[in-house]
């Protein structure tokens, strides 16, 4: 017998899907996930400004029973130039505005973006040992080898403000929410490249650039933990700005950490879920990174397929336990 969708509260369970069907699609569907955080194609055949191309991708998901609700990330072919503030920035912002209009027409009203220039989210290892010989990603600043790229904090704030002031009015027009992911790892600098979203105060500053209900955050709880912020402070402080949750666990600090199974890190995951529920954070959520199983060939570290079985089931259990007052 087909089970009903898991949606007893307003927190919408999603998973992360690449644009071509693979095992992660099958696993998520088998776990009862029916809504998708989708990554758009990154090949020359896909035009980010084409409504027809986007519709084809969305229909591919819908044909499998997955409703796309979030795009993550803002496509790198646009994002990279926007974050670097280079000569292609304005063209890329214009393309993003067209993309937002097309996303809204497809019923996709959230875009997860970040402002990690040049390096993006960064790890120095992809095969650190976890429970039962599973492997996880990690970061050790002592092992990081930067190149010669230099960007200052003043430059990064200038580029961020430029983007927000250009994009948010159109996000409001089209009904699209822009959800800022914090820097990962949340270090002040990676080599010579400044990171600006590395503390709760910095996130608040980023939100204050424009007073808009369409500018908010992707609350990646592991990043806030690595910042040294207390979730008990950060979640209430941002409750009205949280548009999307990355439910992930870690061990260590921002200079040296590793990811874990969801139940094997330093974050009390049930307590975190209680904080979301108590603060009325009823937004889409996904399990984020997972370990690679010992018998599994790793295709994309953190996003391999089999570990999602445990992670999605764990998240569903946490949600149900908190809802029913059992956790």
At a glance:
By secondary structure, this protein is an alpha/beta fold. The protein is built from 10 helices and 15 strands.
Give the number of helices.
Answer: 10
Number of domains: 1
Taking strands numbered 1, 2, ... along the chain, how are they ordered across the largest sheet? 1-2-3-4-8-11-12-15
Q: Give the full name of the CATH homologous superfamily.
A: Divalent-metal-dependent TIM barrel enzymes
Average the pLDDT over all residues and give the rounded result. Answer: 96
**How would you sum up the major sheet?**
8 strands, parallel
* Basic shape: globular
CATH topology: TIM Barrel
Describe the structure.
The protein is 37% helix and 19% strand. With 327 residues, it is an alpha/beta fold. It has a single domain (14-323), classed as TIM Barrel, CATH 3.20.20. The model is unreliable at 1-9 (pLDDT under 50).
Provide the fold topology.
Layout lengths: L13 E4 L5 H8 L4 E4 L12 H13 L3 E5 L4 H9 L4 H17 L4 E5 L10 E5 L5 E6 L9 E2 L1 H22 L2 E5 L7 E2 L1 E3 L5 H9 L6 E6 H7 L3 H8 L3 E5 L3 E4 L2 E4 L9 H10 L6 E2 L20 H17 L4
Parallel strand pairs: 1-2, 2-3, 3-4, 4-8, 7-10, 8-11, 11-12, 12-15
Antiparallel strand pairs: 5-6, 6-14, 9-10, 13-14
Question: Which tags fit this structure?
Answer:
327 residues; alpha/beta; TIM Barrel; 8-stranded parallel beta sheet; 4-stranded antiparallel beta sheet; 10 helices; 15 strands; globular
């Amino acid at each position: 017998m087909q089970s009903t969708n898991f949606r007893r509260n307003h927190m919408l369970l999603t998973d992360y899907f690449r644009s071509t069907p693979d095992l992660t699609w099958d696993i998520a569907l088998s776990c009862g996930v029916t809504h998708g955080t989708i990554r758009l194609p990154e090949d020359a055949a896909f035009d980010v400004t084409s409504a027809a191309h986007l519709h084809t991708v969305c229909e591919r998901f819908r044909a499998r029973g997955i409703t796309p609700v979030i795009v993550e990330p803002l496509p790198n072919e646009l994002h990279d130039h926007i974050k670097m503030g280079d000569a292609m920035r304005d063209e890329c912002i214009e393309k993003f505005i067209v993309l937002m209009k097309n996303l809204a027409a497809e019923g996709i009203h959230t875009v997860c973006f970040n402002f990690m220039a040049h390096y993006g989210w960064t790890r120095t290892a992809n095969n650190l040992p976890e429970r039962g010989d599973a492997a996880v990603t990690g970061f050790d600043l002592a092992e990081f080898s930067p190149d010669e790229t230099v960007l200052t904090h003043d430059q990064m704030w200038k580029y961020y403000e430029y983007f927000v002031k250009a994009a948010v009015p159109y996000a409001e027009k089209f009904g699209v929410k822009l959800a800022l992911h914090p820097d990962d790892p949340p270090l002040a600098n990676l080599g010579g490249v400044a990171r600006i979203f590395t503390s709760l105060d910095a996130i608040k500053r980023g939100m204050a650039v424009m007073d808009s209900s369409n500018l908010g955050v992707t609350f990646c709880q592991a990043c806030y933990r690595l910042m040294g912020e207390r979730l008990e402070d950060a979640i209430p402080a941002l409750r009205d700005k949280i548009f999307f949750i990355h439910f992930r666990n870690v061990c260590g600090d921002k200079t040296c950490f590793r990811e874990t199974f969801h139940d094997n890190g330093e974050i009390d995951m049930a307590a975190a879920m209680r904080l979301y529920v108590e603060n009325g954070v009823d937004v889409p959520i996904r399990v984020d990174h997972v370990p690679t199983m010992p018998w599994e060939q790793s295709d994309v570290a953190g996003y391999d397929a089999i570990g999602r079985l445990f992670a999605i089931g764990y998240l569903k259990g946490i949600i149900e336990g908190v809802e029913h007052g059992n956790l």
